[in-house]
Amino acid sequence: MASGIRATVKFDSPGECPLAQFSETADTTINHVSSSVALPNSTGSVTEFFAAVDDLPDDVDREPVFSYGSSNLYRIAHDGDVCCPCECLGQFGCPVHRYTAAEGVLTLVFHAEDFRQLQDVMAEFRERYTSVDVQQLLQPPLEGTPEERVFVNRGKLTDRQLEVLQAAYEKGYFERPKRANATEIAAELGITQSTFTEHLVAAQSKIFEDVL
């Protein structure tokens, strides 16, 4: 069985990453990226990405290479200097499996060969980028395709929402038939039934945003 690790890492301040800068300046989300085209007689590379942008701000000096309906294809050349997380990751021989850049925040998904390589990569990330945050780590065997596996950010829940959700799950509220109803669980938590329902619905809505 493979011993690799799939890592999802987020950078709130990804240095001079051109993808993150473009997403912030153009107020768009970038999630279709291809890279690793070598420049002639150079250690640099070329990255292409799609962005649904009609009119770029005046301070963005970049023209689309091709247009697909409402999306334009842009191209960025890298000179080989390590200035962004993507290039830093390349030093370890780890291609980026998936990019997402939105509002200046960069999220990368990559596969480390083993835990030691993951430690080395993360140590380098933390030294260069203080805002790095590990979102998810997965090891095989896994069911489903990579696209079907999603990260659920529990941090979006308030303390009360998490408390209500955990209590509902542990007391069998979601089972059929229910082992406990909303009134009973609310009483144990010391809140009203309407407050219990309000927090539970809010928690479920936030989780569904990540799952669906």
Automatic annotation (TrEMBL):
<dbReference type="Pfam" id="PF04967">
    <property type="entry name" value="HTH_10"/>
</dbReference>
<dbReference type="InterPro" id="IPR056433">
    <property type="entry name" value="DmsR-like_N"/>
</dbReference>
<keyword id="KW-0805">Transcription regulation</keyword>
<dbReference type="InterPro" id="IPR007050">
    <property type="entry name" value="HTH_bacterioopsin"/>
</dbReference>
<feature type="domain" description="HTH bat-type">
    <location>
        <begin position="157"/>
        <end position="209"/>
    </location>
</feature>
<dbReference type="InterPro" id="IPR036388">
    <property type="entry name" value="WH-like_DNA-bd_sf"/>
</dbReference>
<dbReference type="Pfam" id="PF24277">
    <property type="entry name" value="DmsR_N"/>
</dbReference>
<feature type="domain" description="DmsR-like N-terminal">
    <location>
        <begin position="1"/>
        <end position="139"/>
    </location>
</feature>
<protein>
    <submittedName>
        <fullName>HTH DNA binding domain</fullName>
    </submittedName>
</protein>
<keyword id="KW-0804">Transcription</keyword>
